[in-house]
Amino acid sequence: MPPRNRRNRTAAPRQLNEAAQLADQLQRAGFTKRDIARIINRDASLVSQFYTKNKGAAFVPALQQVLAAIQTGGITDLPELATLASRHITRRTTASGTKARVRSKAVLITPTGSGTGRVGAQAIASGSSRLRPLIAEAAQRGLRLAFTVRLAKTGYVHPSGSRTDSPGIRREVVQRADHTEERSYGSSATGGHDAADFARRVDAAAGDVTAAVHQWLVETGRIRPDAHIIHLEVRTWRPR
Question: Cα(166)–Cα(228) distance, rounded to whole angstroms?
């Protein structure tokens, strides 16, 4: 028996769920998936799952309110839209009718003030939001912080090992085989950075930790404006 000819078969278009439809409307209004993720305070990968895994039902009321605020009130400020959305986001219900469990923080600070959080390329692309609670808690406790970034060698302004770039840090440079480098900024020996100052920078960047760190590195003449951070680590401690 000859094989069936499958070339002429056309798959029926998949019906988007309500969350995906609302996300589409927001994108037509000029917002990106990353913007939508910031508005609902979630990772951008979740917004993609509105389309691929039929997720997002819990965010429909919030997205409806956000879309209405944009269309009728002309509101486009992301922090303002995020505040509006937060009032309408509730935990989803499981098949048994109970409230779904919420994941705990990806980062924790010990009673002594020691805490570490790391993110890779995927989390960085959506603003490293999982690091925001670490920085916020460090600011509340009056802690100091340091961070390590990894990017292409050509993205740095100063050459490897330059004490102008990262003075006093013995392990300031880690070179990788893929032509990237890790450089650390701040340590307990040099006093590090004021966590409260960085928390304010993150707030000013609408919660985007990646953007806040990138801006500091550019402002202080350490990296080029077009450099892309591909790894970020934040460490905290209590000042002596």
Answer: 18
Residue positions counted in the chain: 240
pLDDT of residue 165: 80
142, 209 in Cβ contact below 8 A?
A: no
CB 127 within 8 A of CB 209: yes
| Residues 101, 93: Cα–Cα separation, whole Å | 9
Report the distance separating Cα 117 and Cα 128, nearest Å.
10
Q: Which two tokens stand for residue 115?
A: 């805490």
C-alpha to C-alpha distances, 14 to 59, 162, 214, nearest whole angstrom: 20, 55, 39
Structure tokens at 239: 């000042």
| DSSP H/E element including 82 | helix 78-86
Cα four-point dihedral sign 43, 45, 51, 52: negative
Give the H/E segment covering residue 185.
strand 180-185
Tell me how many degrees the CA angle 195-155-148 measures, rounded to the nearest 5.
30
The model carries a pTM of: 0.55
Token output for 39:
């508005």
- Whole-angstrom Cα distance, residue 89 to residue 208? 20
User: What count of Cα atoms within 13 Å lies in the side-chain half-sphere of residue 55?
Assistant: 13
Phi then psi for residue 13, to 5 deg, are -60, 135
Low-confidence ranges of the chain (pLDDT < 70): 1-14, 91-108, 122, 166-173
CB 132 within 8 A of CB 239: no
Name the residue among 153, 129, 151, 156 with its Cα closest to residue 36.
129
